[in-house]
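Hello Y.,

Per our agreement to keep a running log of every chain we model this quarter, I'm adding this entry. I've kept the format consistent with earlier entries: sequence first, then predicted structure.
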Amino acid sequence: MKPEDFTDEKAGRLIKGPQGYWAFVPDSLPPHLSVDWDLASLLSQADRALSELGGLARNLPNPHLLIGLFVRREAVLSSGIEGTQASLSDLFYFEAAHFEKTPLPQKPPSDVREVANYVKALEYALKRIKDLPLSLRLIKELHEILLSGVRGEHWTPGEFRRSQNWIGPHGCTLMDATFVPPPPQEMMEALGQFENFLHSPSNLPPLVRIALAHYQFEAIHPFLDGNGRIGRLLISLLLCHEGLIDQPLLYLSAFFEHRRLNYYQRLLDVSIGGKWRQWIEFFLEGVVEQSHDAIWRTNQLLGLWQVYRTRLQEARSSALLLQIVDRLFEYPVLSVPTTARFLNVTHRSAAKLVEKLVGMGIIAEMTGRERYRIYAAKEVIETIESSEIRNTENSAPGEKPLCCHSEESGRILPDDVRIPSFK
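Predicted structure for the entry above:
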């Protein structure tokens, strides 16, 4: 990171470290922002798209319907930006085996465990913010969940860093890093200012506040690992915390992942040249696109849900089968034991119900085993997993993410190991 790359409009100050490197300390929020009709129009589009999604969410037949699907899709996509190699099918298979305490045909890669931890952290956070304000304490709790039992757990999970870290390609040093966040002492001061911003009343539009908060967290980079995932998780929490959406159906990781280079560059441009407007525009474009995507995906899933229910009703099927189908749109994987517990029926009755759904083509057995069988609603998984974003012009094939390094260790990407897919 070179001082000459930074302009007079930079969004912070540069300080020289003890080893001669330069680090960046972001200014406190909010910055001075100039607004014109073009930006106001984009903000209006984002508000309308988000409002439409919120209206759709409020009219869901069941408030829990689809939420688990969207949470897990976000976990996969956000983790994928950091280089993890796991699909939704991988995650569902891993979770189903874990719930049933059944053996997997092979040891799951750490990537799948990392994604499962993201799900736990996000679900935990969504419950916590109903009663408690978003705080540094909660952020540390989420970080501890995120890194529990996976690679990186030696990087002080749940604790803010006490040493310098830096961001850049594999093998880079503090001297040639792409970006160096504030040293620990300045970092703690910046975090205090960040928390004050979250709690302070403001006349800024909520979506603009969330865009500013996401940049600030990424610029502070307070952990040795997991900063990107926590930063994107905070977007989802703030959308709910600010009352912009009642149900957590909007996530921006798909937008960021498909425009990964632009995502990194827009954040860096704020630090280097104070280009807040460009970052806010990029963020709002993501809100518009992902709101429309979530509306489309929700309508597709609701249409499929109605098809299944109509098919069962026309066949004069048991009301218990309708309950199972509803459950599949909360979590699309099941086994006979989980079905028996869910319906409070015997194992034999649950087995007959599951076989009826298999015969109707609603679910299919995925393991090929005689014991510990797992069934999945493949059409549900394919609908939530499908990609509707076709613009990948800013992502190069095989592109690797920038990595967070520290004075203690470096991040190592895993081999591309996969567990059996549902497809």
